[in-house]
Every structure is written in C-alpha cells, then in structure tokens.
Design goal:
Layout (H helix, E strand, L loop, with lengths): L1 H34 L15 E2 L13 E6 L4 H14 L7 E6 L7 H10 L5 H13 L8 H8 L6 H8 L2 H16 L7 E4 L3 E3 L5 H21 L1
Parallel strand pairs: 2-3
Antiparallel strand pairs: 1-5, 2-4, 4-5
Helix pairs in contact: 3-6, 3-7, 5-6
Length: about 230
C-alpha cells in the first residue's frame, strides 16, 4: 500500500513538472514570436493593419501619389518613429511624395501646427524639426505661445522676424485650415498615423516598422491594380 501511494505521488509530481515545462516552452515560444515580429509578418489586412476610407481624399500633388505622416510634437511615439521613418524615406518607392503634417485635435495643438508649417520654409527644416522634438521630450521644455518658441529657437540661429511673419501669415492660415479639413476627413484617432495615397490610413497598432511595411505594400498593391486595369 505504501509503495503504491509513493508511486502515485511520484507520478503526480512528474505530471506537474511536465505541465510546468510545457508552459515554460509555450512562454518562450510566444516571446520569440512577438520579439522577432513574426506576429507582424504576412499581407496587409484591412481593419487590422489599415483602414480604407469610404471617400478617398484628392491628392494635393499632381502625380496623385503621396504619403502623409500625421504627427504631434507632444507625442513621444512620434519622436520614436522618426528613425524608422528616415530609414524608410531613404528607400521610398519611386514616384511617391512624402509630407509631414502636424495634427490639430484641439486648440492647444494649433501653436505647434503653425510652428511646423513655419519651419518648413526654413532650409534647415529637418534639423529644426528634430530640435523641437528633443526640446519637448529630452529637455522637458514647455511652450505656451509663439514667443516661447522663438526664444528657444533663437539659440539655433533662427530668423525670429521671418519666423514670426510666416507663423502669422494669411497663406499659412489657409494651409492650416486645409490640413485641418483633410485631417478630419481622414478620421484620424491617434498619432503617428500614415495616410497612404489618400485612401488608406495606417496606424502603429501593430508596430512602427510594420506600419511602414504596410504602406509600401499598399503602394505596390495599388500600382499593380492600376497596371492590370
């Protein structure tokens, strides 16, 4: 009797150990799966990787092929997206134009949206673009108005008079209103997001690199469809 009891206990322990071992292997497998982005491989899926707009937006470019990144200077994910984006832009599909647009979800966003449009007229735009990201997220700078921005950017030899003129110009206001209208039509809910060819909105829900891969795939898919038709 004692031997049978001991044997049952041993078998039970072995079963428990075996079960825990299987759990451990499963955990390692899942970690590898997600850690290596295997979960993000495969073709783009509507509703998971992108949203197809019911009413496509007319391109602002003559060739009709453009990708727009909607971002916010106050969004840390947008700052972290920059290196991925720069790598992608170095090999952007031929014939595609790219533009960054600062979102305006609230009145407090308008300061930065105007600042971004004003910076785009500066030859050092990309450097100043990165400087603003760094100021907010690395140096914890708080900008409450135009003069706060100018005071900070003057450290980087920005022309304060020209920047102020551009910031307040009627042409910039018209551009901002156009961007705001197109942003609303794009039905954006988060930043960063990509508007691809005026009809596909790609979020970062499945990863930032995945979003760029999806953008490339959608461009190629659209071009292949046009060629066949």
């Amino acid at each position: 009797m004692a031997k049978n009891t001991a044997r049952k206990v041993t078998l039970a322990k072995q079963a428990v150990i075996g079960f825990l071992g299987l759990l451990g292997l499963g955990f390692v497998g899942l970690s590898f799966y997600y850690g290596t982005n295997l979960n993000n491989m495969g073709p783009a899926i509507a509703g998971e990787d992108y949203t197809l707009l019911d009413k496509p937006l007319k391109s602002q470019k003559r060739d009709g092929e453009e990708v727009i990144e909607y971002f916010s200077y106050r969004c840390i994910h947008c700052k972290n997206f920059e290196p991925f984006l720069e790598d992608w832009l170095a090999n952007i599909p031929k014939g595609i134009t790219f533009e960054r647009q600062h979102v305006v979800f609230s009145s407090s966003d308008e300061l930065f949206a105007r600042a971004h449009l004003a910076l785009k007229s500066d030859p050092r735009y990309l450097d100043l673009h990165r400087i603003l990201f760094s100021a907010i997220h690395d140096r914890q700078q708080r900008f409450n108005n135009l003069e706060d921005l100018i005071t900070y950017l003057e450290e980087y030899d920005i022309d304060a008079t020209e920047f102020r003129r551009s910031f307040n110009s009627p042409s910039l206001s018209r551009k901002l209103n156009t961007n705001r209208s197109r942003q609303a039509q794009s039905q954006l809910t988060a930043t960063p997001s990509l508007l691809v060819l005026g009809k596909y909105v790609v979020s970062m829900s499945n990863g930032q690199q995945r979003a760029l891969d999806i953008a490339s795939e959608l461009i190629e898919r659209e071009r292949s469809s046009s060629t066949k038709s």
